[in-house]
Amino acid sequence: MVKDVLLEVLTAASLFFLNPLFVATLIAAVFLGYFRVKRERRSFRVRLMPGFTELKRLFSESWPYAIILSIIISGVGLVVDSGWLVLFCIAAFVGLLFFNYKIMSPIYFVTMAYFTIFFMERYLSDFVYRGWSPTNVDLFGDLAVTAAIIAGLLLVVEGVLVSRYGDRDTSPFLKKTKRGLYATVFKTKRLWLLPVLFIIPGDLIPVYLPYWPQFTLGEAAFTFIPIPLIIGFSQVIRSSYPNIAFPKIGRSVLTIGVIVLALGVSSIWLPILGVTALLIGVVGRLVLSIVVSIRERGSVFIVAPKSTGVVIAGILPDSPGDKMGLLPGECIRSVNGLEVTNEKELYDAIQINAAHCRLQVLGRDGEVRLMQQVIYRHDHHRLGILVIR
Predict the structure, then answer these.
(1) Rounded-to-integer distance, Cα 340 and Cα 330, Å
(2) 3-state DSSP call for residue 338?
(3) Burial grade of 250 (CB within 10 A; 0-12, 13-18, 19 or more)
(4) 87: left (phi > 0), else alpha (psi -120 to 50), else beta?
(5) Which residues lie closer than 8 Å to 189 by C-beta, 6 or more apart?
(6) Per-residue pLDDT averaged across 327-345, rounded?
């Protein structure tokens, strides 16, 4: 008996870990790191972070929010339609294939799944799969309410993740300006995986897995099912620093999420507000992406070459430059008492006193400060800084 139960548990777990969306997300995270490293080496001949960084952080930053979402969704009894949930996963899977994470906000997947059922009900009303039919879905009732509330919750989580982690390990690369010089552009392309527990009506899974957790309420049966939710974010900025720009974007996404969530909760009394919430969420998120992209394309480069020194484009983690507190956009004016104006002069000056480096740095605020750092044998011989060439 115990052996059978364990076998069922392992089989149940495989439904999550062998979910095509879960597997595709792991592969996408690996490719994210691979292409980032190629881009950084093309600009600076060295990568900023290891190639598997995106994969390692796929779940480590988002798991607390996955637990909170599971508690809220399951705790308040938000029952989702199984067909809508499948279509939601399919939409996310297709989004991953395009490798364009500007379209990986969950509000798009929630809305696409909802309106796919809407059109199926009108043009494929005879469609039936394992007892599910679009004609049995209460589009302007339960589904409108549930989809809107879940969309709002996911947008709120997206906003928090972008605000807290969007600028983490942002990848710099060099871009040619109209004057023929090179300036720094910052790019972030992130994926977050959230294993969230949903409640679906019926006994679709327990029919095949008798020990799968379920409960009954009156004559209705309900089943718990874990789904890998994906949140993607991609943005290129050049007019501001990552630690300033991405929290602002995150707060904007959070504001849209709060509005959608408020309308979703209100749709309990007036279900049509749920459909309105989905449309507002899609339009708001899309407009935000377009506005930010247009603004960045037409703006000046905040990290550009200076005739008075060498401009920092990035800092390798745990390097001497990182320990000194150097930041992208700061300008190194002199090293060990020698003025520097290009990369060669910078590293030649470092070798004068390779064990104890003294820098004069022009900060982002325009203030000049003196910094020094002991460089040990195992430290990066070039301070671990990426500079504009």
Answers:
(1) 14
(2) strand
(3) buried
(4) alpha
(5) 32, 36, 101, 171, 233, 234
(6) 89
Q: Which positions ≥6 away from 135 have C-beta within 8 Å?
A: 121, 125
CA 13: distance to chain centroid? Answer: 25
Going by C-alpha positions, the residue among 366, 308, 302 that lies closest to residue 339 is 308
Q: For the residues 47-60, what does the mean pLDDT come to?
A: 91
Question: How do the residues of the chain divide into helix, strand and coil, expressed in percent and rounded to 5?
Answer: 50, 20, 30
Residue 246 structure tokens: 């991405």
**Which tokens in the block code for residue 364?**
């982002």
What pLDDT is stored for residue 270 in this prediction? Answer: 94
Residue 300: which residues within 8 A CB-CB, separation 6 or more? 238, 239
C-alpha atoms less than 13 angstroms from C-alpha of 98 in its C-beta half-sphere: 13
Question: Does residue 83 contact residue 134 with C-beta atoms inside 8 Å?
Answer: yes
The DSSP annotation for 283-328 comes to HHHHHHHHHHHHHHHTSPPSS--BTTBEEEEEE-TTSHHHHTT--T
Domain ranges within the chain, ordered by starting residue: 2-297, 310-387
**CB-side neighbour CA atoms (13 Å) of 150:** 30
Looking at residue 365, what DSSP letter applies?
T
Alpha-carbon span 272 to 264, nearest angstrom: 9
- Of the pLDDT bands very low, low, confident and very high (cuts 50, 70, 90), residue 208 is very low
Count of other CB atoms within 10 angstroms of residue 233: 23
CB 140 within 8 Å of CB 275: yes
Structure tokens at 105: 């906000």
Q: Over the stretch 237-263, which tens digit does the pLDDT of each residue have?
A: 999 999 999 999 999 999 999 999 999
Tell which residue, 303, 365, 359, 301, has the closest CA to residue 333: 359
How far, in Å, CA of 352 to CA of 339, rounded? Answer: 13
pLDDT per residue as tens digits for the range 295-310? 998 889 999 988 889 9
Say if domain 310-387 classifies as CATH 3.40.30.10. Answer: no
The number of C-alpha atoms within 13 Å of 88 and in the hemisphere containing its C-beta is: 23
What is the structure's pLDDT at 3?
A: 56
Higher pLDDT, 226 or 162: 162
Q: Return the structure tokens found at 44.
A: 């600076």
